[in-house]
Design a protein that fits this description.
alpha/beta, about 170 residues, binds flavin mononucleotide, about 20% strand, 6-stranded parallel beta sheet
């Protein structure tokens, strides 16, 4: 069974991106083992000088989890027409050490409604390319398509199909 690390790109505590990743993990548990990572918000801020110091434990843990995974899913909201700083920060920490190089990655933007998330996707793709990751697809998803009246996320048939096909590419 493929081991996938699913990273929540949001800085929020009650993140809808986290909810989405948990639903994805449960929905496809027969075919993939998807561990959800929700720790970006507490990582220290990257600074190149810190590479000459002892690596913070939280950073080592993230790097090890990325290293150990067969593939990565990143689901992110858009902040200021870009990715949240917490996500960019994590990517900066992994630039020199290269954990994402040749790693299959599925980037997902999960934003309130279409066409939001376009800028975040463009930016994320550029950073993943710079990290030499293998980008398998681009998946823009929208909250208004999957939220029910209790604000729970329920995948419809199309989203389930799209996600299933994209995960198979990892
Ligand atoms: C600082 C900030 C900036 C935002 N800028 C954008 C934006 O540029 N485009 C967008 O679609 N949504 C923007 N939003 C709204 C988020 O996309 C929305 O709150 C989303 O649900 C956050 O995902 P989460 O629930 O996983 O944290 C912004 C939110 C914050 C906090």
């Amino acid at each position: 069974v493929k081991q996938i690390l699913a990273i929540n790109g949001s800085a929020s505590e009650n993140s809808s991106n986290l909810q989405l990743l948990e639903v994805i993990s449960a929905t496809f548990s027969d075919t993939f083992q998807i561990a959800v990572y929700d720790g970006l918000w507490c990582l220290p801020l990257f600074n190149p000088n810190k590479l000459r110091e002892i690596t913070p434990v939280s950073i080592t843990q993230l790097k090890n989890q990325v290293d150990d995974a067969d593939a990565i899913v990143i689901s992110t909201p858009e902040y200021l027409h870009n990715v949240p700083a917490v996500l960019k920060n994590a990517l900066e920490w992994m630039t020199e050490s290269g954990e994402l190089a040749d790693k299959p990655v599925l980037p997902i933007t999960f934003t309130p409604h279409e066409p939001r998330g376009k800028f975040a996707m463009t930016s994320l793709i550029q950073s993943l390319k710079a990290s030499k990751a293998t980008i398998v697809a681009e998946l823009p998803l929208y909250q208004n398509r999957v939220r029910n009246e209790n604000r729970e996320i329920v995948l419809d048939e199309e989203y389930r199909f799209l996600l299933g096909e994209a995960l198979k590419l990892l």
